[in-house]
Amino acid sequence: MTAPPPIAMLAELTHRCPLACPYCSNPVELLGREAELDSATWISAFEQAADLGVLQLHLSGGEPAARRDLVELTAAAHEAGLYTNLITSGIGLTPDRLDALEAAGLDHVQVSMQGTDPGLADRIGGYKGGFERKIAVMREIARRGLPLTLNAVMHRQNLDDLDATIELAVDLGARRLEVACVQFHGWATRNRAALLPTRAQTEAAKRIVAEAEARLRGVMAFDFVPPDYYADYPKACMGGWGSAGLNITPDGTVLPCHAAASIPHLTFDNIRDTSLRAIWYDSAAFNAYRGTGWMQEPCRSCDRREVDFGGCRCQALAIAGDAAAADPVCAKSPHRHLVEARLAEVEAAAADADTPLVYRKME
Amino acid sequence: MSLALADTDRPALPRGVRVVEDRVRGGQVLLAPEKAIALDAIGSAILARVDGQRSFAEIVAGLAATYDAPAERIAEDVQRFLAGLRARMFVQVAP
After folding, report:
1. ipTM summary value
2. From CA B15, how far away is CA A358, in angstroms rounded?
């Protein structure tokens, strides 16, 4: 099949991060500074991406501000014609650095939020003093008129804080609030029992977001990512494998999605050795789950096969043991009972408030 | 609040939202925070007139004259298009 050009690229500039969030979706094995691409290689990747049709560039990590060349990289991406979005914890963004990023053409900032008070936020982020610093950075971003999205990563331990999260986002002047219930990839999988929301919390969150969305129309836009374990159908992961987006890890490995390296039988090319165009159109990994030809039943004959593309390949592998199976959150999946078993664990763990969090640390 | 624009409202694209030429796919695309929307000819024609100066009524009148179409019909299309963008905070409105 012929793939369309990609629209968005996630550049994971580094795995280094001052926070230690238990829900981190980066791989369990992190790459150190010595493995990271140099500035010139990133800049070449941005130029290749723009030539390939990428419109949106997400500068992420880890904490992208941990890269000393962040301003230089932003300027080069802007110069290449890309819309530049910085996905950050906010830590490390001084006013001087924001001045330089604005001058470099930065278009938008997304700041992650762990909670609405220092106690909760710093406990989840594993970084004392982080909350106050984040609030100061967000006020500074909004004061400048830089478009700000608050990304509130929600899970069982902070979902009851959703009303306050919405009010805080309005107070900070965010143009958009992403209420993103944690997805279980990479490190987060270790904390599933402590983080997966209960069904009651999930239902409450849907009501609260719908009510706030109506009340704040024209004030703040919402994006809501519900926990897919409670859904009847899977999410349309990446809008379909190899159809809209791609991801470059700190060492230059090019992936069809953030978690794809968890699929062990796929081999991924590196931007140091192969052009982005060749990787996107011709590599075995990007073609592995494109279109519908790879599907098994129940996906193959399902009338939703081009709606959700069978869901998430990484989740199919992690839970059903087969990356080509239907995403097991699907009600039609023969593996749905495995998701139900995990949900039963959640209800049991929720009764025990002391399920410990395993913090992410760089070795 | 209602997202519908009054005749005297002057819509504008806020910082971080812009129309660019898509040099790979052709045509124009609206770039906004974490979103890219391919524009058809009608969307491009509307956004070409969204400059913070022209009022909703002036935008409609201009399009009706250019495309020789009934103003009521144009007003409906423009209203639907701009209200949708306003809901996403991709369009701001000054009275």
Report:
1. 0.95
2. 40
